[in-house]
Amino acid sequence: MPVSIRLSRGGAKKRPYYRIVVADSRASRDGKYLEQIGTYNPLLPKDSAERVKLNEDRARYWLGVGAQATDRVARFLDAAGVKERATRNNPKKGEQGEKAKERAEERASKAAEAEEARLAAEEEAKSAAAAPAEETPVDAQDAPAEVDADTAEVEAAGEDAPAADADAPATVIEADAIATGAGAETLDPASES
Questions:
Q1: How far is CA 44 from the centre of its chain?
Q2: Three-state SS for 87?
């Protein structure tokens, strides 16, 4: 029967408390065990003497009869001076996997493209601001489509639009002509009759 020295979890949700037990390695983690040889409370400070309690004599006995300690328990046994644990060296410990590296490269390329686009937009804005503002006549076709709500309603209504709305642009032109001193009768087709 393979025997291991390991931790058995107890305590409440998000409040762990562990027993250091000697159990059959095939038994469940929190199941039946042969003997409890200590406790481990990870909620206590690391320098607290109550954090890890271990019966060193029983640990030595079980190690002597062939029990294998798990990595965490081996650390406790090494700290207590029961069994020396060989230090491990894993140079690839913090290294990402292949897919994670690919995702990181993809994110970096997208970020670089976004930065290039932002810089190009800033450069374009600077060059547009630096260019002298030339006044050129604007054709009706080249003008931006700025439509106020009343004009949009008239266009949407089509022929069913009221006559007052249809005359509104003529009265605006007539008011402008009077203000500039031009004859209103030449601009307003309704006044000719």
A1: 33
A2: coil
